[in-house]
Each structure stands twice: as structure tokens, then as C-alpha cells.
Amino acid sequence: MSATLEQRRHLATEIPGPRSRELMARKSAAVAQGIGTTMPVFAVEAGGGIVKDVDGNSFIDLGSGIAVTTVGNSAPRVVEAVREQVEAFTHTCFMVTPYEGYVAVAEALNRLTPGDHDKKSALFNSGAEAVENAIKIARAHTKKQAVVVFDHAYHGRTNLTMAMTAKSMPYKSGFGPFAPEVYRAPLSYPFRDDKQVDGQAAARRAIDVIEKQVGSGNLAAVVIEPIQGEGGFIVPADGFLPALAEWCTANGVVFIADEVQTGFARTGDLFACDHEGVVPDLIVTAKGIAGGLPLSAVTGRAEIMDASHVSGLGGTYGGNPLACAAALATIETIEAEGLVERAREVQHLMLDRLHRLQADDSRIGDVRGRGAMIAVELVRPGTTDPDPELARAVAASAHQAGVIVLTCGTYGNVLRFLPPLAIGDELLVEALDILTTAFQEATA
Length: 444
Ligand code: PLZ
Hints:
The protein has 444 residues and is an alpha/beta fold. Helix content is 36%, strand content 16%. A hairpin with a 2-residue loop joins β1 and β2.
């Protein structure tokens, strides 16, 4: 962030302003309509808790570009590291002539991810690409093919990851046929499960489906987001993840945590698996890993990671030197600035305020999340029937008032909050005030 970016919400024009409207017209003419837009304002600068647009409007950022700029936009260490690297070299291809940055990122991931066993890593570009590679590795290691994913899961938009993603619209509809050998098990969803379904019972329910419909003899991997992202910020009941991990270990199945959205301090632990001490065999990371530069990784048990033959994994850009420099600076920022702690502070501030809002508003069915990954699930009062229209209305009115907020969930009825950890308390409180007003204005 440039030193001049004022940490203040400011509306200079109507939203969107005239220059953004002009750019949106160009976008509509030039960019495929499949690429959607949450908020039709064009960014020119961002940092701390603010995104500034072409019309001089400054928005409070509760989105972090979908959980990416956890250390803040253009975080100073990231800018410096990328600047140095861009002047040295931009690309050689790590598979052609390697460079230290890639190795240093792998070492850092091996050190920081859950578990103190021997680990290795491989770097890629996007979350989906890393998920695909985790499956390749698990298949090579187990010599089995089937993959189990969960209800409400989101793992990406490539062919294999579309098959793994649960929701048809907008992610899959019309884009089949999908990759075979992907099976879906029921999740632990405390807000929607019967009260007696605790973490153990939910795990049993999932394992029954896996054993009956797939069979561990065919199963290469179980892939799960420890807190679901796009699916609705669903935090499984305590005990669910450990029981699944244990079953995988006992049955020769690779347990893969997709921490693309939850990783790197987002949930108030370095990784969401840390919360219950779950040690995945493989962990997939992306998003928050590199402060906004495209980078993703698969990290895991050395003997599993080494299952692929030499040159079986790779890609032209995987572990690009700029992205690696950014990742090292991101990790340094998380450690130096105590961002894991900061995420916990954000959690307390937000949950406290949102629980108070819920006490007066029966349309807020559930308040949940960890760290700076918090959500409210909206329902018709007195029921658990989803209310996606209310989520849309509250988001739209927050946007008009200068707050970037995202929705998610299988039913589209979840408002999610993913502030950068570089945001100050004042902006967070102001954003929550605006959301409170937005709820008041959105009448049933
Ligand atoms: N796994 C858990 O959250 C990306 C999707 C945005 P990529 N989530 C944001 C959209 O609508 O395309 C995500 C995720 C989890 C995998 C992915 C995929 O990561 O970097 O978008 O490929």
C-alpha cells in the first residue's frame, strides 16, 4: 500500500461512479460474460483495510479479494521482495534452471504446516491446480483411484475440481462431462444437522457412506476443507475432522486438507487443521500464501509426495520467482506482525458484535466462523429456510454504503466477512455499523 492511502471510507460519487460505469461498459464489450462481477467498481489502489476506485471512492474491505490479501494489499515486505526479484529475473522455469526462492518456500511450508514428520512440497499457480496435483500424488502413492469429497464442497473450476465442487450453478452447470471416480459424503453442518449429530456421529455417517458406496480398497483420498469456504463458512462439529483423519490412516487412504481459503493465519491459527490438532497427509494451500501473487502448493508426508516418478509433476509457471519472493515476505509478515493473534482479535470483535445483532434479529439464523473468516447465515424467521434475497439485499446496501462484502453458501444465504488482517479496529467497527443499518433497512 502506498503511504498516502488514507485509511478512511469515503464516498465521492454514487456507486458505481461514472468512470467505473464507463469501464464496466468496456468490460461487457470485451470480456466474456462468464467472468462475473460482485461489485462494479474498478480498483486503482488498495492497502490496509481500504480499496479505492477510479472515481475516488474508498471502500472498507471485508473481502480481501476472496481471502487472498490476508497480510494486506501491497504489504510493504511483499512489495520490497517482489521489486528486488523483478529486477533480478522474472522467470527461468524451475524445471529448467532452478532458483533458491522456490526451495525456500518449500522449506517454509514443510516447517509451518501441521505435523513434525518429514515433509516435501511442490508449487503451482492456482488453488484448483494444486488440488488436482494433490489427487495425482495420492493416486500415484496408493495405486487407487477414487476420491471422496463432501456436500457443499468447493475445490475449483478445472475439470477434476468441478467434479469435486458440489454446487451446480454457477460452477458446473452445462460444463460436463465431469471427471469420474469422485464420490460425495455428508458433511457435519451443525446449524442444519439434528442436535444429536455431534462430530463423532457426523463422521460415522460420512464413513458409512464411504464404506458402503466406495470402499477403502478403491479409495485414494478424502479431500476436505477444514472450514468450508464457498459452501457457506461451515465449521464442522468438534471431533468430525479428527475422526475422519483417523479413519483414513487406519484404511490406507490419503487425508487431504484443502486449506486454500483457510490457510495462513486466516482462521486464527496458521492453518485451520491446527485448531483440533489434525495432521493431514497432504495439505493444499494457495490464496493467502503470497499476498496477492498467484501461487499454490501441495505439502505433505515425504513418502507420499515422492510417489510420482521424476518429471511427473510440474508446469511452466509453478513457483514463479516473483510469487515465491512474495510468499517468503508474506510468511515473514505473518510472523513479524503477529497476524495469527490479530485474526483472533478480529474474531472476538466480529463475533461479539454479530451475536448482539443476532439477538435482536431472528433472520440471522447462525453466526459462525473462526479468526477473520466469519459469516452469518440468513433464514426466514423461526425456521431454517434459507433467505438468499435478504443476503443479496444486505450485501447490496453495504456496497452502496462503501463496504465490500461477499455472499456464499449452497443456498446463497450466507454473508461472509474476510477482512485483511492489516485492517484497523476503527474500520472494522464502522463496517459492522454499516451492516447493522443494512439489516435494519432490509425489511422482510
Ligand atoms: N479450494 C477451498 O476456496 C477458491 C473461488 C472464486 P483457485 N475459492 C474462491 C471463484 O468463484 O472462482 C478455492 C477454495 C478452496 C480451492 C479453490 C480454488 O482456488 O485459486 O480459485 O483455483
